Amino acid sequence: MKTIKVDYPIQKRVQQNSEDCVIALGFFDGVHLGHQEIIKTAKQIADRKSLKMAVMTFFPHPSSVIKKGEQINKYLTPLSNKADTFEQLGVDILYVVEFNENVAKIPHDEFVEDYLCGLKCKHAVAGFDYTYGFKGKGDMKQLAIDSKNRFQVTTVAKFARHEQKVSSSLLRSLLSTGRVEHIQDYLGKRYEMTGTMTGKGNQVEFHFDPDYTLPCPGSYEVTISDGFFKTKGICKVSSIQSQGQLSVRLFYDSIIGTYDFIEMQWNNFIADFEMEAFHAQNDYDVGH
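Predicted structure:
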């Protein structure tokens, strides 16, 4: 998979070197089941039309630039992890648009002209609630108009589980209330983070990209794996957490040394020692 960074204004060489493609549009934080449905739809169209399969995403999250409503500065999948997932899903080209104030001000028709037609998009695929352009004035109906029949548009319907729309916001809410055990219902797997690890007996230090979203403070059962061994332990998250580092106490194993690649899965919540009520999860209904 080729990863191509796109600035503002879009570089002429990027447009000139682009290939006829199907483009899946979205931020895709977490690449959850709803996102996967969009990408699979785009992949099927690309294969049928013998076109390259592309994804266009943005970084950082638009809310961190527009600063209206909730601002998202931490991610379910930092950009490098998101790129790895896209490649596993069969994406050929990843366009990463640097989102800044200039990009936020691009009119919807100009965005289509420069960033879709300019990159030889022959078919655009996005979720039913996708918006684009200045103040989000472009939606999926507008996209069909702005295309001027230069490319086709496919809208992917709402994807739901347990009578709830599967969304990145839902996953963040589950994390913020410690309900990590429910995330696999919407993500398709347990919430996981990648990083490195230093072992000191049954106490290990897990180092990770500080852009990851952590669960709320408390103790969690986690599974640690390097692809060969797998072991479980307890990870405590604190409200005064060190950036990019977590301590894990292993249940059974003793590990010495440094590991360059580790996956840590969040299995379930155990206890929250920082809340008066135990543990305030009852305030959130995930539809179970």
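Summary: The first helix runs from residue 12 to 16.
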